[in-house]
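Researcher: Quick test of sequence recovery. Tokens follow.
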């Protein structure tokens, strides 16, 4: 059998090859068919992916088109370069506050005043059931000066504090209006009353402002207040300062009043909240000397609740061991500064320090203290303090420097900027000082600050102050550390300037000057004018003044262009 097979293979040598080729071709064909089927499936998948891609692209284009052309973008309010609003036959309280009332991201102006004859005014005093000579609080739009709202209040007004978050639990901000002797009213951003303080316990007391805004002490998720009162009729030199905790949600009392004996005048009264490095809250104020009282002690005296039982409030009622060592064992008062002529007490932010620093101003000295240890960093001697120092950046660092106005002789003051690190003089100039000269201000540029102040430069001819001091012209000046020998004269006015400040009206966009000009309370009524002007506009219209002790190579136009292009920050 084997031989026959071999013989057959030799006789027909190609037969097996043909069979093999045929088998090979069959296998190859099957592989090609499989590959074709796979390629067909892959092609179909690619087409689906391509279709899906173009579909998504088409949808995206429709969305972009809709947002670009069909759905209108929010209209940004056009803030006018300058505006003014005048109220005839009015007298004004010498202050205003800035706050975005209508939430258009432009700061608005809130102020208080009185009309001489207001019977025909909407929401008038008579219509509200008040005396015909009651007071008004009004809000003006920061964009164009239009009246947003105006409301009558029963008493003379001391303070208007706005921008208080979550006031009355409304999840929005509002204002607290403090009047004399008993007025204490929380109002919403639309000027509506949220709550009014119950004055039944305070019949013989007069509230003094401002109020201090505290964390939530009564566990209702709304911040609370510390209100201050003094007896209306003080019979002796020893007076009382009455402290009262108040609910921010409904104006109800939290506990009872806390009495604090004082022996000196409380005017000007500017209490503040100070938080130490340990997170302990202290209430600081001046009554001759600068003093402090722990919020924990006030809370315990008012409520009778031990701190250990005040679980919702425990984090705000801590003690600082370093400060507790300084407390008087009986009165629990802490002496911050011993001088009996302390006039101003200010908190100063310090990089890397939770407690920051404290700036104390007496009649003849300005002194910077460490906010934790109360040790003195430096002091600057003066003749007579003119007002609270203004902070800003004159050096190229992140430490606040201070502008100080010093009354040096009759009708003359010295404006000095001192280094916040060591108290050394960085810049100074003598000015003619008119009566009731407005307070200075400052605004931050990208790296430093512009300082603004009022007065009048002495005559260039002889450097004297021989001009007629009966003239009531006020000059607003501006100085920047990049050109310290240049002063820009931004404005001069013969009207009474009751209040003034410079502030950002739009975040990182427009710095503006705001002036209140008119007659103060107690004077004969006349026109009351609120004016806003963008700082860039004021610079473009300004006059360049060069100080005697310096010279530069820049023209007036180059100087004004340089300052015009400055950018501002909060």
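Model:
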């Amino acid at each position: 059998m084997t031989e026959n097979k071999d013989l057959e293979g030799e006789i027909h040598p190609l037969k097996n090859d043909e069979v093999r080729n045929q088998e090979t071709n069959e296998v190859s064909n099957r592989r090609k068919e499989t590959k074709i089927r796979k390629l067909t499936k892959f092609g179909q998948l690619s087409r689906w992916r391509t279709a899906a891609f173009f579909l998504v692209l088409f949808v995206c284009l429709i969305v972009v088109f809709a947002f670009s052309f069909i759905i209108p973008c929010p209209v940004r309010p056009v803030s006018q370069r300058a505006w003014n609003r005048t109220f005839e036959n009015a007298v004004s309280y010498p202050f205003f506050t800035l706050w975005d009332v209508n939430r258009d991201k432009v700061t608005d102006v809130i102020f208080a005043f009185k009309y001489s004859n207001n019977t025909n005014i909407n929401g008038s005093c008579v219509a509200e059931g008040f005396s015909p000579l009651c007071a008004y609080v009004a809000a003006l739009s920061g964009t164009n000066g239009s009246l947003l709202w105006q409301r009558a209040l029963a008493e003379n007004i001391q303070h208007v504090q706005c921008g208080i978050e979550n006031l009355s639990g409304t999840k929005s901000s509002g204002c607290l209006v403090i009047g004399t002797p008993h007025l204490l009213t929380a109002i919403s951003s639309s000027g509506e009353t949220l709550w009014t303080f119950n004055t039944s316990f305070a019949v013989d007391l007069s509230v003094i402002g401002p109020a201090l805004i505290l964390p939530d002490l009564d566990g209702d998720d709304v911040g609370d207040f510390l209100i201050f009162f003094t007896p209306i009729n003080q019979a002796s030199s020893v007076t009382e300062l009455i402290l009262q905790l108040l609910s921010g949600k409904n104006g109800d009392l939290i506990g009872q009043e806390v009495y604090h004996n004082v022996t000196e005048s409380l005017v000007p009264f500017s209490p503040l909240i100070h938080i130490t490095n340990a997170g302990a809250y202290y209430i600081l104020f001046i009554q001759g000397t600068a003093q402090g009282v722990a919020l924990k002690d006030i809370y315990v005296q008012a409520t009778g609740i031990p701190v250990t039982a005040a679980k919702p409030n425990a984090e705000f009622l801590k003690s600082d061991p370093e400060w507790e060592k300084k407390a008087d064992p009986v009165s629990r008062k802490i002496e911050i500064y011993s001088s009996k002529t302390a006039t101003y007490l200010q908190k100063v932010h310090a990089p890397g320090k939770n407690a920051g620093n404290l700036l104390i101003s007496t009649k003849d000295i300005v002194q910077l203290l460490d906010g934790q240890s109360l040790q003195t960093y430096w002091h600057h001697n003066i003749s007579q303090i003119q007002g609270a120092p203004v902070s800003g950046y004159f050096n190229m660092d992140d430490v606040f420097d201070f502008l100080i106005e010093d009354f040096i002789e009759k009708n003359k003051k010295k404006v000095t900027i001192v280094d916040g690190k060591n108290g050394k003089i960085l810049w100074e100039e003598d000015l003619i000082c008119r009566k009731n000269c407005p307070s200075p201000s400052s605004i931050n540029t990208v790296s430093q600050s512009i300082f603004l102040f009022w007065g009048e430069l002495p005559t260039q001819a002889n450097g004297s102050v021989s001009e007629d001091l009966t003239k009531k012209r006020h000059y607003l000046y501006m100085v920047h550390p990049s050109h310290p020998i240049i002063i820009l004269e931004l404005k001069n006015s013969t009207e009474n300037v009751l209040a003034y400040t410079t502030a950002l009206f739009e975040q990182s966009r427009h710095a503006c000057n705001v002036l209140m000009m008119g007659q103060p309370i107690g004077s004969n009524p006349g026109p009351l004018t609120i004016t806003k002007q963008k700082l860039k506009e004021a610079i473009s219209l300004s006059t360049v003044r060069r100080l005697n002790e310096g010279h530069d190579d820049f023209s007036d136009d180059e100087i004004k262009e340089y300052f015009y292009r400055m950018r501002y920050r909060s």
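Residues 91 and 519 are 5 Å apart (CA to CA).
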